[in-house]
Specification:
The complex is a heterodimer. Helix content of chain A is 0%, strand content 53%. By secondary structure, chain A is mostly beta strands. The N and C termini of chain A lie far apart (40 Å). Chain B is mostly beta strands. Chain B is 0% helix and 55% strand. In chain B, the strands form 2 sheets. In chain B, strands 2, 4, 5, 6, 9, 10 and 11 form a 7-stranded mixed beta sheet that branches. Chain B is globular, with a radius of gyration of 14 Å. Classes of the chains: A mainly beta, B mainly beta. Chains A and B meet through strand 4, strand 5, strand 9 and strand 10 of A and strand 4, strand 5 and strand 10 of B.
């Protein structure tokens, strides 16, 4: 059974600070890792994907992957109130090929305090 | 233009009824999915279709039957609706190759309430 674990929060961060979101996964064969943002009542929206160990930066967002520790994180720099949302970590396995579904964590509710 | 669209947006129905949800994508992707997000916001894969062929059926009751008439459409038919089927159903699509970099794009969701 593939599992993805996230702290449900809420995680409260002051505006302008760095928000750090963490995720662990159980399937060592996992190939790709995604962070989605979901506002209340809306659909998940892709923030970043990463598939190699190390860091990947895109604007204010940095994804970090450590396959040995089965750990993925997302850093949000200069946090804005508009970043307040639920952040979903998702993992794609390596066994089913390109049509694999994503296994999602339960999400971390992030609140940016003005 | 909406990349992944779903109809209807809201669906309120009685227990025991049969209903369908439709999904269309205009991204040229070859793979489409159905996900269920329950009341606790947990998002779980139900089905995956690649080039109109069923790839994944994740322990979903056989009251749920997906149908893919072509690569751009994936419909979900639900028979004998139960209270526990109340959830938000999301359609998603992706391109299956290269697999390591595939990204899934989600539709706006269909909010199903079974009374």
């Amino acid at each position: 059974q593939k599992e993805v674990e996230q702290n449900s929060g809420p995680l409260s961060v002051p505006e302008g600070a760095i928000a750090s979101l963490n995720c662990t996964y159980s399937d060592r064969g996992s190939q790709s890792f995604f962070w989605y943002r979901q506002y209340s009542g809306k659909s998940p929206e892709l923030i970043m994907f990463i598939y190699s160990n190390g860091d990947k930066e895109d604007g204010r967002f940095t994804a970090q992957l450590n396959k040995a520790s089965q750990y993925v994180s997302l850093l949000i720099r200069d946090s804005q109130p508009s970043d307040s949302a639920t952040y979903l970590c998702a993992v794609k396995g390596g066994s089913g090929g390109g049509a694999d579904g994503l296994t999602f964590g339960k999400g971390t509710h992030l609140i940016i305090q003005p | 233009d909406t990349a992944v669209s779903q109809t209807p947006k809201y669906l309120v129905t009685q227990m025991g009824n049969d209903k369908s949800i439709k999904c269309e994508q205009n991204l040229g992707h070859d793979t489409m999915y159905w996900y269920k997000q329950d009341s606790k916001k947990f998002l779980k894969i139900m089905f995956s279709y690649n080039n109109k062929e069923l790839i994944i059926n994740e322990t979903v009751p056989n009251r749920f039957s997906p149908k893919s008439p072509d690569k751009a459409h994936l419909n979900l038919h639900i028979n004998s609706l139960e209270l526990g089927d109340s959830a938000v159903y999301f359609c998603a699509s992706s391109q299956s190759f290269p697999a390591a970099q595939e990204t899934q794009y989600f539709g706006p969701g269909t909010r199903l309430l079974v009374l």
